[in-house]
């Protein structure tokens, strides 16, 4: 009894694929077959090279940026003298320097002359 | 079949033509009913064979090529439906059909209605059996179900179909 049903259903169903579909499908298959797939090792190698390149560019960019900063900071001899710690802690008045040197030289000469000769 | 599988795995175009001739009609017949669209069925047949060509190395390990081809087509249907649900245009809903299959669907309207009464998992098995002309073992392979489950569902589906068709006066 059951066996009759599939047959009666089968007669109502569309069956054959359109003839032009064969040509179209096989043409697509041929195109897919013609594409050479790269071996796995080749793809891994390509990815590694690309990753190394990107990493190299990134590191170089970073180095250049920090290097430029260094050059700029080194390149300014004092920059703003108010921010130079050596200048900031030097409390010697600039105008008094010649007198100070003069007194110092005078003391030095006095000591030299006070020493016995020979 | 194993010799054919080897030739397919080596990428021989003639082997693909042979495989196409062996199962394209059944595949198309099943897909046209399953998708209710000849145009979509054609697309899926074409895409199925392209996928087979691309992953041809796997074919060497395949025992039943027909079942394997239907499995790939089934995956393609799922992919098509997923895409269609996004685009909401590719696959027609159950009561629609394109112009190419309109007359066929009209002719099979009663059967269609009867099939529509089946649960989805029963319907798929009946379609694969009737339109794909697959054995129950092949259907088990395609659907990933145990062969016993497939046989039970198929028998239950036939009982239901018989009831519906007898009631609607479709049986000859």
Please, could you describe this protein's structure?
- The complex is a heterodimer of chains A (118) and B (172).
- Chain A has 5 helices and no strands.
- By secondary structure, chain A is an all-alpha fold.
- With 172 residues, chain B is mainly alpha-helical.
- In chain B, 75% of the residues lie in helices and 0% in strands.
- Chain B is built from 9 helices and no strands.
- Chain B has helices at 2-9, 13-35, 38-54, 65-87, 99-107, 109-116, 120-130, 136-143, 147-168.
- Chain A binds chain B through residues 1-2, 4-6, 8-10, 12-18, 21-22, 24-26, 28-30, 32-33, and chain B through 11, 13, 16-17, 20-21, 24-29, 32-33, 38, 42, 45-46, 49-50, 52-54, 56, 101, 104, 107-108, 111, 129-131, 155, 158-159, 161-162, 165, 170-172.
Detail the topology: elements first, then pairings.
The complex is a heterodimer of chains A (118) and B (172).
Chain A: H1 4-10, H2 19-34, H3 40-75, H4 85-89, H5 97-114
Chain B: H1 2-9, H2 13-35, H3 38-54, H4 65-87, H5 99-107, H6 109-116, H7 120-130, H8 136-143, H9 147-168
Helix pairs in contact in B: 1-2, 2-3, 2-4, 3-4, 4-8, 6-9, 7-9, 8-9
SS content category of chain B: mainly alpha
Q: Beta-sheet strand percentage of chain A?
A: under 5%
User: For the report, how would you describe the main beta sheet of chain B?
Assistant: none
State mean pLDDT of chain A (0 to 100 scale): 75
Q: Which chains share the greatest interface? A: A-B, 25 and 41 residues
Query: How many beta-strand segments of chain B?
Result: 0
The low-pLDDT segments of chain B are none
The whole-number mean of residue pLDDT values of chain B reads: 83
Instruction: Give the distance, in angstroms, between the N- and C-terminal Cα atoms of chain B.
Output: 38 Å
Percent of residues in helices of chain B comes to over 70%
Q: What low-confidence regions of chain A span 5 or more consecutive residues with pLDDT below 50? A: none
Q: Could you estimate the helical fraction of the residues of chain A in percent? A: 55-70%
């Amino acid at each position: 009894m059951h066996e009759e049903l599939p047959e009666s259903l089968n007669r109502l169903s569309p069956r054959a694929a359109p003839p032009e579909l064969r040509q179209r499908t096989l043409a697509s298959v041929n195109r897919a077959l013609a594409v050479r797939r790269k071996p796995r090792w080749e793809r891994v190698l390509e990815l590694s090279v690309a990753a190394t390149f990107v990493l190299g560019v990134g590191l170089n960019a970073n180095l250049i940026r920090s290097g430029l900063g260094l050059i700029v900071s080194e390149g300014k001899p004092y920059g703003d003298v108010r921010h130079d710690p050596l200048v900031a802690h030097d409390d010697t008045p600039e105008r008094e320097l010649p007198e100070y040197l003069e007194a110092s030289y005078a003391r030095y000469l006095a000591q030299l002359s006070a020493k016995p000769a020979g | 079949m194993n010799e054919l599988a080897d030739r397919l795995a080596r990428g021989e175009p003639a082997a693909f033509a042979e495989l196409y001739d062996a199962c394209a009609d059944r595949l198309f017949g099943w897909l046209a009913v399953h998708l209710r669209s000849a145009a979509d069925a054609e697309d899926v047949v074409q895409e199925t064979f392209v996928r087979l060509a691309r992953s041809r190395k796997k074919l060497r390990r395949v025992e039943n090529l027909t079942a394997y081809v239907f499995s790939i087509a089934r995956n393609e249907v799922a992919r098509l439906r997923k895409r269609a649900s996004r685009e909401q245009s590719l696959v027609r809903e159950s009561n629609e059909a394109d112009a190419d299959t309109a007359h066929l669907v009209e002719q099979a309207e009663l059967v269609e209605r009867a099939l529509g009464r089946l649960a989805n998992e029963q319907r798929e098995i009946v379609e694969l059996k009737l339109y794909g002309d697959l054995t129950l073992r092949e259907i088990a392979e395609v659907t990933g179900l145990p062969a016993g489950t497939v046989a039970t569902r198929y028998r239950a589906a036939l009982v239901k179909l018989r009831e519906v068709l007898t009631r609607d006066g479709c049986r000859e």
